[in-house]
């Protein structure tokens, strides 16, 4: 398999499990982010973005390289991919492609016990940095929307408007456990506005009465 770092995700959805090395990446972003090769001054100078019409000038483009997560040089030689139904190893990241109604269940499960929020971070280019590296390095869930990131859009990898949710390994056990606890299809989503308002008033009144006892 030869392609871009972002492209590997779509290949893994239907292919047999596979792995890549730096030789498999036709886009330099993946090997640079994972520390397989030295950073390329052509890109990190910030001069590419203005030529693509993405940034006004190099200094704007350069900002993305100052804040993005990346791995230390020579600490990664291979990257393994597999769809969930063919997974035979403990993954560092689980990336879910979902419609909003599906994503709502997953994100609710993620914060069910802790109440912790999720992130939606990204930049116009180098979407792979936010798809893979930010969740792995920071240990945080990240949410992306297909159609917002230059390389993925130009390569026409996925239909627009889907949500890409990256779950780091640190959070997978709790999210899986919470998915077994929560009610996936909350009834209030089908009640309608007025019924929902009435139920909210009822709950507030119940709590107020309990607090006054």
From TrEMBL:
Organism for this UniProt entry: Sporomusa acidovorans (strain ATCC 49682 / DSM 3132 / Mol)
Domain of life: Bacteria
One Pfam family it belongs to: DUF169
InterPro entries: DUF169
Protein name: Uncharacterized protein
């Amino acid at each position: 398999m030869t392609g871009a770092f972002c492209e590997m995700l779509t290949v893994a959805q239907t292919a047999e499990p596979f792995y890549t090395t730096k030789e498999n990446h036709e886009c330099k972003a993946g090997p640079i982010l994972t520390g397989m090769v030295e950073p390329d001054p052509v890109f990190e100078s910030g001069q590419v973005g203005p030529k693509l019409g993405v940034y006004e000038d190099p200094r704007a483009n350069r900002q993305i390289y100052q804040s993005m997560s990346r791995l230390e040089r020579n600490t990664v030689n291979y990257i393994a991919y597999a769809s969930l139904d063919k997974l035979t190893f403990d993954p560092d990241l689980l990336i879910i492609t979902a419609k909003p109604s599906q994503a709502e269940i997953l994100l609710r499960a993620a914060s069910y016990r802790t109440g912790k929020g999720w992130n939606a971070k990204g930049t116009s280019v180098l979407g792979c940095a936010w798809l893979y590296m930010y969740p792995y390095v920071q240990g945080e869930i990240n949410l992306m929307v297909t159609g917002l990131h230059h390389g993925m859009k130009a390569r026409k990898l996925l239909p627009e408007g889907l949500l890409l949710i990256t779950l780091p390994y640190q959070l997978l056990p709790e999210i899986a456990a919470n998915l077994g606890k929560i009610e996936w299809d909350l009834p209030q989503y089908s009640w309608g506005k007025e019924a929902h308002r009435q139920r909210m008033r009822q709950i507030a009144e119940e709590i107020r009465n309990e607090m006054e006892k």
